[in-house]
Write a structure and sequence with these properties.
With 200 residues, the chain is mostly helical. Helix content is 61%, strand content 4%. A two-stranded antiparallel ribbon has the order 1-2. The two termini are 18 Å apart.
Length: 200
């Protein structure tokens, strides 16, 4: 195993490391108590007033621990604008909060295919892969997000976490063949501590 389950949604009950996340209207960076961050919403260019209000409403519901109501809110919005990228993206964030990862991955993959220049869907694809132990796929998605936007802080911070988890996996694999030498064993334990709940 490469580490603990990934926390990746708007509400983080077991915070790890702080991440800045874009705000719906200004896209200004602000800290959030989480290691794995989704970007809500996509880009200001995609945010009409109604979609920005949706992101605000859903974010407030998730922060209040009311994901079922958030899901209902996004489903209602999709009835009005089923092809709107912003609405679909927010719906995917809610699916992630509800741990409906397969549905969320399919949704973000479609959005990324339709809007290949955007980093946010790729960031969330990376989070979903990492949460389900597919670390190489997670790394590839996050690197793609950063190619689209080298300044995307959430994707860069999440990629750093994936690298830590890959390091743990590599050292653990090495330890299966023979006991690790003390220097590597110390490094392994140090990284495990960073990834553990106590180190968050």
């Amino acid at each position: 195993p490469a580490g603990p389950p990934i926390e990746s949604i708007s509400v983080y009950r077991r915070p790890l490391l702080h991440h800045p996340t874009p705000t719906p209207r200004s896209m200004a960076q602000r800290p959030r108590p989480a290691r794995w961050a989704t970007a809500l919403p996509l880009l200001l260019a995609l945010s009409q007033p109604g979609q920005a209000a949706l992101a605000d409403d859903v974010g407030a519901l998730l922060a209040a621990g009311r994901p079922a109501e958030a899901l209902q809110r996004t489903e209602q919005a999709l009835l009005v604008a089923p092809r709107d990228a912003q609405t679909r993206f927010v719906h995917g964030v809610v699916l992630m909060e509800l741990r409906r990862d397969a549905e969320a991955l399919e949704l973000f993959t479609r959005v990324a295919q339709e809007f290949p220049e955007l980093p946010e869907p790729l960031n969330n694809i990376g989070l979903l892969h990492a949460r389900n132990g597919r670390l190489d796929s997670a790394r590839a998605a996050l690197e793609s997000a950063l190619r689209n936007d080298p300044g995307h802080r959430a994707a860069r911070a999440n990629l750093a976490e994936v690298h830590l988890m890959l390091a743990v996996a590599a050292w653990e694999q090495l330890g299966l063949a023979a006991p690790l030498e003390p220097r590597l064993a110390r490094r392994l334990e140090a990284v495990r501590a960073l990834l553990s709940p106590a180190g968050r």
